[in-house]
Structure formats: C-alpha cells, structure tokens
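Sequence only, no structure available. Ideas?
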Amino acid sequence: MFDQAMARIAGRFRRVEPRAAARAYLLGLLSSTERKTCWQLAEQAGHTRPGPMQRLLRYARWDADAVRDDLRAYAAEHLGSDGGVLVVDETGFLKKGRSSAGVQRQYTGTAGRIENAQVGVFLALATRRGRTLIDRRLYLPEQSWCADPERRNAAGIPQTVQFATKPRLAEEMIAAAMDAGITASWVTGDEAYGQDPQLRAALEARGIGYVMAVACSTRVKINHGRTPVRADTVAGRLPATAWHRQSAGNGAKGPRYYDWAWLHIGTGSHRHLLVRRNRSTGELAFYLCWSPTKVPLSELVRVAGVRWSVEECFQAAKSQVGLDHYQVRHWTSWHRHITLAMLALAFLTALAADAAPERPADAHHPARSSDPITLTVPEIRHLLTAVFHPPAVTAARLLHWSNWRRRHQATARRSHYRRRGIDETPG
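Reply:
I predicted one. Tokens follow.
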C-alpha cells in the first residue's frame, strides 16, 4: 500500500533524485525517529549529509499543491463519502525569531495564549471510516507580512499571494475540495469560522449544509424572522420539554451525551439555532445550522460532534508524523513539509480504515469485552516501524553524524556571535 501511495505522486517529480528523496522523507515521517527534521530524516535514510532532504523542501522542482490534490483524492478514495463532513480549523506552530513565513506574536490555541507562532488553516475530511487532513493554507498577517515587500521577498512569498482572513482561506479550501469531487454533505467549524456570514453564504450558495459554532452573543431572528434576539437569551427561555438528550458521537470513554435543543430561525424552514448543554456544568454552546433539505435533530447533533475530529487529526499529525517538527523558514519549504506530513497521515488513516471490521448498524453498540479495539493510527505506525526498520547502523556512521551536527552547530554559534558582536575568545 505504501508503494501504491507513492505511485500516486511519483509523476509530480520530474527527476529520480527528488522522487527518491520524497520516498525516503515519507518513510522517515512514518519511522520512530524522535524529531522529524531534515537532519534526522537524512540520518534515518542513510545519507551522509542532510542536503538531499533540504533540497527536496527548498530547491527541487515539484508542485506541493499538485501532491496535495493527489492526497486529497487518495483520502476520499479510502475513506469514502458515507456521512462525510468537511471540518475547518487552525493550529499554531511555535517559532523563535521573525524570519519564518507568516510568523508573528499572535494567539494560538496550541499554546492557549499569544505566542510567537505561525498559524496554518486546515481542512479535514471526516467520514464513518476515518478522518484525515486534506488541505492547508499558511495564514499571513496583514500588516506585519502582506504589507512588507522586503520581508515577503526574503521568505519567498509569491507576489500573487495577498492577505486573506482565516474564513476566506477556509472558503478557498472548501471550494477546491468540492470542485475536486469531494462529496461531503456538511461543513462544520468553530466560532472563528461560524461567525463569518460570507463563509456561511458561500456554503448555502453551493448547497452544502453547515453546523457552525457561534458566540452566545450572536443575534438570531425568531418569530418568522421578525424579532432579533441574542442566542443565549433564546436558550434561557426554552422550556424543559425543548431539551433532548443525545450523543454527539463516541469518545474515548464511550458516547458523549449532552442535552440539545433546536429552534427555527429566520424565514427558511431549514435554518436553525442549535444549543448544546453540558449535563454536569450546564455550560451552553451555540451553532447556526442550515441544510438544503429537511434533517432531524440527530443529524445536526452528529455533525456538531464531528467538529472535534480535526483536533484528533492535529494531535496525530504532530505526534505521529512530525507535522510541527520542521525547521524551515521559506514559504515553499513550509508547504512542502506540511503536504508530505499530511500524506503520511492519510496513508496511516487509509491503513486503519481498510483494516477496520464492518461496524454494527447501531453506532453505539458496545463491542464484546474480549474484542480488541480497532487499529489506530499510532498502533499502525508502531507496526510499520518494524516493517520499515533500517539496517543496523555502524558506530562509524553514528560518530559521523555526531561530528557533522556538532560542526554545524559550532558554525551556527559563530555566526550568531558575529551578528551580536560578541567575542568568542575564552577569558
């Protein structure tokens, strides 16, 4: 299956050298290597220097967007369209310095605070067979990057790339996925995307339903669109009979039950405000929903619950295939590493989907206590590590790489000291 996955992208590399480097890079991402940077992946592949991996990410001639298209089709082929939902979300990549494309001090959920970071907006495909990342956009802050030609040029940002808000980036990815034949019926996302009326209008124009989280202060129109009122005010007026206990899907500890209420808003019969209430704390969450046809409450609840699958994708991508392990600054290098990491994740997800037994008709039907859980992405990568295990490494090769790293680090230190005007002479 790995050879089949590689065959899908082989034509994107005109020369055999970058094609072989891409194969070695992907195998390194799937390996047990602790940090998946060019240095470590080159050592894992048996190279004497990291040059081939660095050239793959920076100078080799290949189109990362074309490979992205291939992995998107590969994911759809293996995950199918049953219950398909497109999920938009962002994740942060903590960085030092100011040279990495798009980096600045900004809020990122990765740290839970404002940090020096890059932010990527991602699109995930979630079906009943699995979930994986299928597209990505690097967010460029408007003032610190888009309006600074010198900084853009140094980071290799193309002139055609202009400022776009995160919802606009999400809209671009959704449109590209739909145009490529992805047959998802729904889109979901958190408040950063649900609050954007242009994104919601674009989804309605395409005839794709959505369940988008919004703030409690969001004003909705009730009484056939005649009365605008805050969402939390509406929730406070609901009678006890309006709430229904339903599961938003299975979690690590079984079905995730919440109390749910929904009511028609606006003038359309397929437009709703969905309210979720935590059974223990009473905390409320709100969603604006639209569908091209009539759907039951249980379907809106299911889609709302699918939104959390993108967080699982981020966790797996970062912990299993090194999504955030890169040490590159250039625009092209970022997109190439991220794309290859997404392909590695899609490959593991496809293996897990193909290995999974047929699920019972009742999604909440408990398995027998003697049955093992289905194969997970981490477990499959653990098994592949043994299959792809490289030949025994000699002491000479280990020492070679140790010497190379320390020489390179000494050169970097001298350059750093020179820039700061620090004398390295001891004493």
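The mean pLDDT is 90.
Hope that gets you unstuck.
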